[in-house]
From TrEMBL, chains A, B:
The lineage of its organism: Eukaryota, Metazoa, Chordata, Craniata, Vertebrata. Substrate binds at residues 220, 222. One of its GO terms (biological process) is nucleotide catabolic process. It catalyses: uridine + phosphate = alpha-D-ribose 1-phosphate + uracil. Belongs to the PNP/UDP phosphorylase family. Phosphate binds at residues 97, 141-144. One of its GO terms (molecular function) is uridine phosphorylase activity. Residues 57-306 form the Nucleoside phosphorylase domain. Pathway: Pyrimidine metabolism; UMP biosynthesis via salvage pathway; uracil from uridine (phosphorylase route): step 1/1. InterPro entries: Nucleoside_phosphorylase_CS, Nucleoside_phosphorylase_d, Uridine_phosphorylase_euk. Coiled coil: none annotated. This is Uridine phosphorylase.
């Protein structure tokens, strides 16, 4: 059941070479009669996952359920798939842990805040894509972040996700032992997103490192938490070191997102807007309207790339069809 | 503004000796004109926090927003404070990060899943209680967990919250340096909860150590995640070691809850029901109804203790009043 490197899989052999399966790496799944994706309120014996999700080519994840619903409405419009009467039902309506929406080839899923919360969701999402036999899936995290040396509203596409000591790694504890995982992301996809921003010309986008922390207050050197044992100078020194190491924004989910997507061969990108410049402050004092407009930027950027990729694959499909049709006559 | 040990505070001097303030430990808060509790959508300049929350004596927190709404409905009935027409509005309705409900002296707040998610909430909750000038606050985490060597449905009141190597500590990274914090909880409160369970006689409750992990699948030795590189025997050996060290259940928030409540002098307890015995399986195969009834047990236990504590303090108040009234005649 786990067609990773070194595994063979019957289904894989029937696929075109260009198709890339979503990998699980767990031999135990073979022996399971059913698989309950508990935090999605979905399961292999209760839902026809290939029928529900087999056509998914793009997954977009973000912390807030409201934002992920707003994304599905936005992308439906962009892809001309919207139905004025459509309600875009929450596929995970039976639970309040995560929210999930789908339109055509695009799935939108919320993940809450922090590494553990997104990790639970990704374990179940990767199994869902695997059970649904999805191929060639691209995944984006769209989020908010604190910026370093950037105008608020700037979008950062992550080059490398680094930890609080600026190293590109994720430490995970498995059976009490620390395992270190790579947090590499797809550089080609990051470049494509940067190009989309140039095409759009609506807002500034940069490629930079993203620091992923376990805490929003003390973990990000904020001075406005319930506890703070360091000075303003300590904070500034730390953020300066982060900037000098290449960090351009700070959030709380990118490292495990990068690590798990890499393990499962999902082409992945992290696209976060900066809501403030952390070297100038800690509190989010911009108006609700301004913050809301900033939060739409990662959606616009990712929406533009999805549209572009679908148009390209449609052209390729047309071209393939023409080649096939022309073949007998040449 | 931070009346911790070694600090003096004018407000404190006017309090009775028996009253205990909720502490922040952050000298920087003094210099802030406003404090925006961003993830609650509340703030000191936009809301009258003392008027809204000054009477809070009990805070109950849990992962799921639905469960925290259900708790406020339940406790309203228990304390005979329910209004059949009441809607119990979500105080944080302007955001979807957390949900918050209040009835009389009881506040109910959701915290999502995992240490980072509950830590953000607790930073803002502790500041909220501080700004509202609350005193003598007791806080409970009610949650779900995997059990070890216990019948599913057993409630575990946490003695010590331990990490994945069974040590009672929380490692936090602050300015890139690892800081170790104690995860001690109030033993008297744990004993009182155990006594409540005996009074009720409705379900089994034990006091035991709770292992707090960063991941639900690999971090808890599950065999059913998207990735698994260990055997069934490795899993059983690890869980046996956990059991032998005193661990009776596994969840994902107790360590930072214990550490932050200790730092802020909040009397705290963790009360989680076990949904399955992890030595017998990984998947949650019980019916929705059974799982739902299990999840009500921590609510019932904590609700019973809150009622008992309020009755005791009411008796003390009556007694005090009598003493005062009788004083001139003796």
């Amino acid at each position: 059941m786990a067609p990773g490197p070194g595994f063979s899989d019957e289904k894989n052999e029937t696929l075109c070479e260009s198709e890339s399966t979503v990998y699980v790496h767990n031999p135990h799944l073979d022996g399971m009669k059913d698989d309950i994706l508990y935090h999605f309120n979905l399961g292999t014996s209760t839902h026809n996952l290939p029928a529900m999700f087999g056509d998914v080519k793009f997954v977009c994840v973000g912390g807030s359920p409201w934002r992920m619903k707003s994304f599905i409405e936005y992308i439906a419009g962009e892809l001309s798939l919207e139905d004025p009467k459509a309600e875009y039902p929450n596929i995970c309506a039976g639970t309040d842990r995560y929210a999930m929406y789908k339109i055509g080839p695009v799935l939108s899923v919320s993940h809450g805040m922090g590494i553990p919360s997104i990790a639970i969701m990704l374990h179940e999402l990767i199994k869902l894509l695997y059970h649904a036999r999805c191929t060639d899936v691209t995944i984006f995290r769209i989020g908010t972040s604190g910026g370093l040396g950037l105008e608020p509203g700037t979008v950062v596409v992550t080059k490398q996700s680094v930890d609080a000591t600026f190293l590109p790694r994720l430490e995970q504890v498995i059976l009490g032992n620390t395992v270190v995982r790579s947090t590499d992301l797809d550089q080609g996809l990051a470049e494509e997103l940067l190009q989309c921003s140039k095409d759009l010309g609506q807002f500034e986008t940069v490629i930079g490192n993203t620091m992923c922390t376990m805490d929003f207050y003390e973990g990000q050197a904020r001075l406005d938490g319930a506890f703070c044992s360091y000075t303003e100078k300590d904070k500034q020194d730390y953020l300066t070191k982060a900037y000098e190491s290449g960090v351009r924004n700070i959030e709380m989910e990118s490292s495990v997102f990068a690590a798990m997507c890499k393990l499962s061969a999902l082409k992945a990108a992290v696209v976060c807007v900066t809501l403030l410049d952390r070297q100038k402050g800690d509190q989010l004092i911009s108006s609700h309207e301004v913050l809301h407009s900033y939060q739409q930027r990662p959606q616009i950027l990712v929406g533009h790339l999805i549209k572009k990729m679908l148009q390209t694959s449609a052209s390729v499909a047309v071209l393939d069809k023409k080649t096939v049709l022309q073949a007998p006559t040449t």
